[in-house]
Amino acid sequence: MTPVRVLAVASEVYPIVKTGGLADVAGALPVALKGHGVEMRTLMPGYPDVMRLLAGADEIRRWPDYFGGPGRLLAGSHDGLDLFVLDVPHLYARPGNPYVTAEGVDWPDNGVRFAALSRIAADIGHGLVAAFVPDVVHAHDWQAGLAPAYLHYDGGARPGTVMTIHNMAYQGKFDRTLAGAIGLPQHASFDVHGLEYFGGISFLKAGLQLADRITTVSPTYAHEIQSDEGGMGLGGLLRERAGVLSGILNGIDTEVWNPQTDPHIAYRFGAKELSFRSANKAALQQRLGLDPRPDALLLGVISRLSWQKGLDLLLESMPTILGNGMQLALLGSGDAELQDRYQGTARGHPGRIAAVIGYDEALAHLIQAGSDALIVPSRFEPCGLTQLCALRYGAVPIVSRVGGLADTVNETTGFTFGPVTSANLSAALGRASFTFHDKSAWRQLQLAGLATDVSWRNRAGEYATLYRNLVASRGRNA
Question: What is the layout of strands, in order, in the sheet containing 200-202?
């Protein structure tokens, strides 16, 4: 099997920098692809956390002026990942979240920051690093969306390009005057078949228009985003490009998410020791100040608090939760109003409702191991990862029938509902409550979930096939 070299481009990579599922995918996929004859290196920005972890990285190139200040390209590795790092301090040496200020506002120069990342990706694609000339450049989300555009407008021989959508809601929209400032031809910002997007430009739109192949993170979401509503302004473009669009389900890192070896949970267990979950439930109840009731259906939520995630609908379903004697353990952050409402609900129902605002990796693992059911009531969900972890940990998923949730959970492994309304969510919670008290039926749901393959094993093979077919269609020297 001829090896394929792929340059992945991502704005965050687990376990180095993470704000969402993109980081999990960018961190797990390269490792999974090693077994499929794919050599993948990942390009990411030199945020402070990255620079600390790669202090001994090798310098490959240095520029006195890279998009307005000195910059370097580094090569190093961390936790099994081979990395290129774009070290441009005036763009990336900022504390906290990679995308927003401490006040939650987008950095005003995000267009330049991520254009710089895409520009160096294209240069690597053209052979900047002689030791690693990629056959394919794989761009993740809008932050890398200009990589296919630079390669397209540069002209001449180039590698194949793949654009992956992790969430259509984030499109990287900017004023069209930015195009010239970041080294793209000005006409590209006026071209409906280029960057132009409702009078401005969109980095995501550029990638979707100009990449050779488009993927997203589940088959159902690939179908949904071709609609006007699901496509969020880009449905028509995706319908035009349906022939090169495919949905490949995400997986999870089953070494990190393994209840038999997990260092973050109170008691480790497997399919044959499901009774040990009760000890994790007790530990979770104790940690969050919930009443120590083994007979209460304990619901878990690990989520960004947002309209997309349907967490307002869960608040509307509180009468069902409280009326059926359930408990709720929530971990998340996001919309300030939702944060306040959940904290207020927790204060009003001590021992029944717990809300931890923020993110705590260890607590996330304990919620998966200790909650009886995990709720994901999203209005739309490209794939979702928490329900995959739930299946792995014996927490029965309760999910809306959208996107990747519909592709990964069914009535043999959990509870689904649709359309996405508070009434339908409440009905699903009622069904779960009734079934929970039938120990045999609940155990069957858990065992079916534990038997589900949620790893990257087969998903990585689909990416490998995509890359090989793309290389073959273009010819290695195209």
Answer: 173-174, 200-202, 196-197
Say which residues have a Cβ less than 8 Å from residue 402's Cβ, sequence separation at least 6.
Answer: 220, 224, 378, 379, 380, 381, 418, 420
* pLDDT tens per residue across span 134-178: 999 999 999 999 999 999 999 999 999 999 999 999 999 999 999
Reported as a single tens digit per residue, the pLDDT across 111-136 is 999 999 999 999 999 999 999 999 99
Write the pLDDT tens digit of every residue in 75-92. Answer: 999 999 999 999 999 999
9, β-bridge pairs? 43, 139
Number of H helices and E strands in the chain, helices first, is 20, 18
Count Cβ atoms below 10 Å from residue 200 Cβ, excluding itself: 16
> Are the folds of 4-251+457-474 and 271-450 the same?
yes
Please, what sign has the CA dihedral across residues 29, 169, 338, 387?
negative
**Residue 193: which pLDDT band, with cuts at 50, 70 and 90?**
confident
pLDDT tens-place string over residues 13-46? 999 999 888 999 999 999 999 999 999 999 999 9
How many angstroms from the chain centroid is the CA of residue 117?
19
Global pTM exceeds 0.70: yes
The CATH homologous superfamily of the domain defined by 4-251+457-474:
Glycogen Phosphorylase B; (3.40.50.2000)
The CATH class that applies to domain 271-450 reads alpha beta
Q: How far apart are CA 210 and CA 139, in angstroms?
A: 12
Q: Which of 207, 166, 238 is nearest to 383 (CA)?
A: 166
pLDDT band at 108 (very low <50, low <70, confident <90, very high): very high
- Looking from the CA of 296 toward its CB, the CA atoms found within 13 Å total 24
* Residues sharing a CB contact under 8 Å with residue 269, sequence separation 6 or more, in sequence order: 259, 260, 275, 276, 277, 280, 369, 394
Q: State the DSSP code for 364.
A: H
Distances (CA, A) of 457 to 64, 259, 386, 461: 43, 18, 18, 7
> What is the chain's length?
478
Residue ranges covered by each domain of the chain:
4-251+457-474, 271-450
- CA–CA separation, 478 and 473 (whole Å): 9
Is 281 known to sit in a ligand binding site? Answer: no
